[in-house]
Amino acid sequence: MTVDAAARRRAQLKIIPWLLMAPTMVGIALVIGYPFVRTVWLSLHEGRGLRTGEWVGLHNYIEMVTDGQTQAAFVRTVVLTAVTVIGSMVAALLIALVLNSGLPGMKLLTILVVLPWAMPRVSAAILWKWAFDSQYGVVNWLLSSLGLSMFDGYGWFNSGNSALVVVAVAIIWAKIPFLTIAMLAALKSVPPDIVEAARLDGASAFKVLLRIKVPVMRPVIIVLFVLATIQAFQAFDHIYVMTVPPGGPNHSTEILSLLTYLEAFAFLDGGMGSALAMLTFAVLAIVTALYVRLQREETA
């Protein structure tokens, strides 16, 4: 084989992987790239449903940043995200520790923990809404039975704060199964001989958790934290189903994802809806960038 033939052969071998990846790359460009570019383009135009109106440049972004309703929705989204992520992560860790304890009945408990994962979120939201109903809800009945008469006929969805509490509880409940299974798998990876040695040295269960188990689980916890943050920031179905009207009462449970939907599909302002979508994208891009940086520091 001549030198030129060998060079052509190497060039062909380099091209083959790109040819094999081409269909997937084209599919990704169509499924992800086009909607993203279209959203950016719409955000720079006047809203006319989902059609392109007149060019307005950054007007939608300026109006979005200076609008009090958007600012309140953003703060509410951050608060709801923080509460649901921290609450679900802590609850999942505690449940995973119980499941990893080896006590009798843990297999049955594992099945019960996973069950909410199989339930459609809209159906679960309807059940939670019924549970907190002011007249027929089981929550008010239980609290009243415990002597808390203030909850007799209490309207959870009549106040923005209490409505957000109910929504947060429903979101945390929905997140727990996946987070628990992932943390349980991470706990299984902790070397048992190290844990046993620490216990023989007199370390308490809390110190074993804090000094041994959590450091080993740290990479998994970081990944779960990022995924939970992204999902919580995009929460939509629970608030849409559980509050009447969606985001009520008086916009007190309105978050960015719901406001984006209302602007684009209820008020037919595709420009503002697209601008709000880009705001959500920017925040989640920052969260993802922080995760990548943490991962690099872990491997450095």
UniProtKB/TrEMBL annotation:
Membrane-crossing segments per the record: 15-37, 78-99, 111-131, 138-157, 163-187, 216-236, 275-294
* Protein family according to the UniProt entry: Belongs to the binding-protein-dependent transport system permease family.
- The UniProt entry's coiled-coil ranges are none
Major subcellular location class: membrane
Q: Which domain of life is it from?
A: Bacteria
Topologically, how does it sit relative to the membrane?
Answer: Multi-pass membrane protein
**Residue ranges occupied by any ABC transmembrane type-1 domain in the UniProt entry:** 74-291
Query: How is this protein named in the record?
Result: Sugar ABC transporter permease
Keywords attached to this Swiss-Prot or TrEMBL record, sorted alphabetically, are: Cell membrane, Membrane, Transmembrane, Transmembrane helix, Transport
Annotated PROSITE patterns: ABC_TM1
Which CDD domains does this one have? TM_PBP2
Note the SUPFAM superfamilies from the entry: MetI-like
What are the leading ranks of the lineage? Bacteria, Bacillati, Actinomycetota, Actinomycetes, Micromonosporales
PANTHER family recorded for this chain? ABC TRANSPORTER PERMEASE PROTEIN (PTHR30193), INNER MEMBRANE ABC TRANSPORTER PERMEASE PROTEIN YCJO (PTHR30193:SF37)
**Organism of derivation:** Phytohabitans houttuyneae
- Kindly list the biological process annotations in GO that this record carries: transmembrane transport
